[in-house]
Amino acid sequence: MLKGEAHSAGLHGFAAAVLRLVRTTAFRLALLYLAMFVLSVGLILGVVYRTTAGFLEQEIGETIALEVAGLQDHYRNYGLPGLVEVVRTRSAVPNNNSIYLLTTAAGSILAGNLSGWPAAVPNASGWTHFKVADYGGVTDRPSTAQAVTFTLPGQFRLLVGRDMSEIDQLRTRMFRSLGWILGATALLGLGGGLLMSRGAMRRIEAINRTTRQIMSGDLSERVPRFGGGDEMDRLAGNLNAMLDRIERLMTGMRQVTDSVAHDLRTPLTRLRSRIELALLHETEDPEVYRTVLQDTIAEADRLLATFTALLSIAEAESGAKRQDFVPVELAEVVELAADLYEPVAEERGQRLSLDIRARPTVRGNGQLLAQAVSNLLDNAIKYTPDGGIITLVLDGPAPGRAACIEVADNGPGIPAEMRDKVIQRFVRLDTARASPGNGLGLSLVDAVATLHGARLELGDNEPGLKVGLVFPPEARR
Prior knowledge:
Elements: H1 2-22, H2 25-51, H3 53-91, E1 98-103, E2 109-112, E3 127-131, E4 144-152, E5 156-163, H4 165-215, H5 231-280, H6 286-318, E6 326-329, H7 330-347, E7 351-356, E8 361-364, H8 366-383, E9 389-395, E10 403-409, H9 441-451, E11 455-460, E12 465-471
Parallel strand pairs: 7-9
Antiparallel strand pairs: 1-2, 1-5, 3-4, 4-5, 6-8, 9-10, 10-12, 11-12
Helix pairs in contact: 2-3, 2-4, 5-6, 6-9, 7-8, 8-9
Keywords: Kinase, Membrane, Phosphoprotein, Transferase, Transmembrane, Transmembrane helix, Two-component regulatory system
Enzyme class: transferase
Main location: membrane
């Protein structure tokens, strides 16, 4: 009983596997290609048949028609005796495939090699196809003939035809071969379709298995690639790139959450402490309360600036602003930013130099681009020593780019090993922790660059930092 149940379960599993295979798109496509292939083979064999057996039948028909015309002329010239003599002579030729029969109106045989008039009814053109073996044909084996019949003056009937047994055998063999070829084609096509579907299912199942592991929480899993370079490998590459992006976003989200909890706890604690101290130390001096309120407002402004920067980064990374892209004159963006920050640089004894070498136009969001340039200038002014020089350069199209905005300073710069890290949220160098800020400036610039398809390049100004915002050629209007 257990053995029978196991056998039944095995059959059920096999049937389920075959059913899943039949329902796959690859198998359905294989069946479609199989049907087209079988149809093509059938058409080719049909053409071969028409050019062989069909051509032979046509040639035989033309030969019989010419012979009939000759016999009719002979009858008109020599009468019935002459026709009888010709038919007897031609019928007596050994191994002759020609069939003749000349009878009277009553059916008496005058000449020919048939023992009686065939019972087959001729068609409208006078042609008939019948079995010769029933009447003692020209060979010992059953054979068929195709002949034309007509009535001569005096109600004499004449039948002229050819033995069609060889052509009938050829036709039978061709039809049998056609059946075998179509059957073999169908079996090979079906087998190939099953193999193709099985291979496609194995690769798709690998993708499904990976996605299930990812949905269970393992974001490190990736779709395997089979190395063929086909569309499935390209799909796997795109899926892996998407998974890399998702993993980076998830990691960034966790880092942001940790950083927000860590970096905002201190200012919120200071905020609460100031308010609590003001309540504990009662005083009638309004200046004390004014000072506490001013410090509280300043601390709240810093917190709001942090959240505003986070919202701007999230908005840029979401890509929603891409729908609002319009042609933007980059020269107007950098001129506005330079006018805004030039007084700030002068207060610190610095010199802000603007160099517009071209006036390119790109498709983008002018507000976000202006905010990105402002962040670059704000960082440069913040970390450049008093008396330093800050350069803002706008360059035009060049090989591999549509435009480039570059901000350079002669401050302490950023070590090469830290340049990939400083664009992350809340990441600040040890030398910059004493300066006001939240570590979101370059993160926002990088998000704006990604939104516009541009790249953010950090380099060495020797000394100082050089930051470039390079727009791709497709960013042109």
